[in-house]
């Protein structure tokens, strides 16, 4: 059996939290399974909290306090971990940013913006300036770095299957978010990921006959050992769902979008053509 790797509790608030959980659990003579018994969470979930790769929900913190008799310690520290984990991400999106690192399949519908995992630094900066115009320059740069850090998933040895439906207006709209040269770089980045077979795009034409969810984006996530999740997002809000019946209902609408969208090969051709048009100053709505 390989030696256990201890977490450095000084590295961050979540790492301290995880190290304390392991120390108090072992001091009480409890295994991960014994500590999880009676909750809706499994031992692997607790293990990931101890390794600072997952945050602890409030209901689980209360359960652990009862089982380990820690007098509300973990419940009180939940807020500290929540704030630390949020970091450069909106509170409603922080759990999704964590889940991306564990996902086996991600499927996206993007109606208004190129998804964060596909954004260049220039595009991310423009989005942040638009949605948070009062942010200080250093605050903007923290958010940009966090967004680019997420994209390193595409460089990992584990092959994430990432499908994305982009509305055509995001690729060659009349009012692009960036200057033409920067839009060309943004589209070149997406095309490069497609050619590496890390991303599978589908373009929904502006004249497509289907119009579900034109006001909201959608994301579906599948995992090796967790139930699937669905996430919807609008301006300044987002919501995560794991109810199978509800996820299936949204999935039907997503499948209609997917059926109306162009296949990946034709979509790549549109992305590359649009990038060239931006470079040549010939982009039209």
Short note summarizing the structure:
With 285 residues, the chain is of the alpha/beta class. The chain contains twelve helices and six strands.
Unreliable residue stretches? none
Distance between the termini: 61 Å
Radius of gyration from CA coordinates: 21 Å
> How many beta-strand elements?
6
Query: What is the helix/strand order?
Result: HHHHHHEHHEHHEEEEHH
Q: Largest sheet at a glance?
A: 6 strands, mixed
What assembly state would you assign to the polypeptide chains in this entry? single chain
Please report the number of helical segments. Answer: 12
From the spread of the alpha carbons, the general shape counts as elongated
Give a written overview of the molecule.
The protein is an alpha/beta fold. Helices cover 49% and strands 13% of the residues. The protein contains 12 helices and 6 strands. It has helices at 13-27, 32-36, 43-50, 58-68, 73-86, 94-100, 121-131, 137-150, 168-172, 180-195, 244-260, 264-280; strands at 103-110, 161-167, 200-204, 217-223, 229-234, 237-241. The protein has a 6-stranded mixed beta sheet with strand order 3-2-1-4-5-6. A hairpin with a 5-residue loop joins strand 4 and strand 5 (229-234). It is elongated. It starts with 12 loop residues before the first helix and ends in a 5-residue tail after the last helix. The model has no long low-confidence stretch (mean pLDDT 86).
